[in-house]
Amino acid sequence: MPSDPPSPPKSDRGASDAVRRPYPKEWERRTHLPDGMPVFIRPLRAEDEKLYPAFLNRITPNDLRMRFFAPVKDFSPAFIARFTQIDYARVMAFIALDEASGEMLGVGRLHTLTPGDTGEYAVLVRSDLKGHGLGWLLMQTLIEYARAEGIRTIQGEVLAENTTMLRMCAELGFHIADSPGEPGVRTVTLTVA
């Protein structure tokens, strides 16, 4: 009986062969916003890098500051690659796309801080779509994913002036507290499992 072919030497294998997960197609979702707009939500892929420049150009400087806690002006390829080159074993990012045009509408990320225990989230929605329920939909998708992965807690930091995000977190059941040592920042925490 023939034996299995030998594994390539460790030096010939990619560093992440053993830990990288394949694209999780089972998380693709077709849905609608409350106003009826069709939206396709799916895990982010490396080739989505090309969608980011147009997406970021439709976000106001203030909304970018709310997301990154500082003014952001540099959308270099390296900056964008940091968000699109992900390892699904450690980070999940869901992109929301317009079904008709294929344009990027928003993105939600969950970065595992402690495997099986804590994940840190971030959500960014195109400024002209704020108030349409897209952020809510992305956050619910992140919560559903965390639950399926056995992540017990989702947390994030939110500027105190970002009342829209804080209101959404309160409605979803997050505990909101002042961030120790960081005036003007709130820590939001949701027990998922």
Helices, strands, pairings?
Blueprint: E1 29-32, E2 38-43, H1 52-56, H2 61-68, H3 77-84, E3 91-98, E4 104-114, E5 118-125, H4 134-149, E6 153-159, H5 163-171, E7 175-178, E8 185-191
Parallel strand pairs: 5-6
Antiparallel strand pairs: 1-2, 2-3, 3-4, 4-5, 6-8, 7-8
Based on CA atoms alone, the radius of gyration comes out at 18 Å
Specify the CATH architecture of the domain at 25-152: 3-Layer(aba) Sandwich
% residues in beta strands? 25-35%
* CA-based shape: globular
- Sheet/helix structural class: alpha+beta
CATH topology of the domain at 25-152: Aminopeptidase
Largest sheet: 8 strands, mixed
Number of distinct beta strands? 8
Name the quaternary structure: single chain
CATH secondary-structure class of the domain at 25-152:
Alpha Beta
List the secondary-structure elements in sequence, H or E: EEHHHEEEHEHEE
Q: CATH-wise, what's the superfamily of the domain at 25-152?
A: Gcn5-related N-acetyltransferase (GNAT)
Total number of helices = 5
Give the strand order of the largest sheet, numbering strands 1, 2, ... along the chain: 1-2-3-4-5-6-8-7
Percent in helix: 10-25%
User: Which spans of ≥5 residues are poorly predicted at pLDDT below 50?
Assistant: 1-18
End-to-end separation in angstroms reads: 48 Å
- The averaged pLDDT comes out at 86
